[in-house]
Specification:
By secondary structure, the protein is an alpha+beta fold. The chain is 24% helix and 22% strand. 6% of the residues are buried.
Length: 108
């Protein structure tokens, strides 16, 4: 997949496995995430990660990216769309949540 940040490694085991008289080698797949480690201020999220961050979930508890797309369509969420994919800046989503504070203790 072009543009993916995940790297797949195949590691050959030291001992061959024998099955049905044929020699076959055992391989172990290791997936490493080589995305640059950034602070949460500049972290980018896709629709599913944004739904998880904002706790927009379905009845079964899984993140609901469709609700994120609905909020984008309504103009209620800031977004970026390079290469046709919706991405969100985590700091902007956090500021929206912080601005929506209502009630509670107020200073006079």
């Amino acid at each position: 997949m072009i543009g993916s940040f995940l790297t797949l490694f195949l590691i050959h085991s030291a001992t061959p496995q024998y099955q049905y008289g044929e020699r076959s080698m055992k391989y172990q797949m290791i997936i490493e995430d080589d995305r640059p480690k950034t602070d949460t201020k500049n972290e980018w999220l896709n629709s599913k990660e944004a739904a998880e961050y904002l706790r927009l979930v379905r009845a079964d508890g899984t993140p609901d990216p469709f609700r994120i797309r609905t909020l984008v369509h309504q103009g209620r969420l800031p977004f970026y769309k390079p290469f046709g994919r919706l991405i969100f800046l985590k700091s902007e989503l956090k500021s929206i949540v912080e601005k929506s504070r209502q009630g509670g203790w107020k200073w006079r």
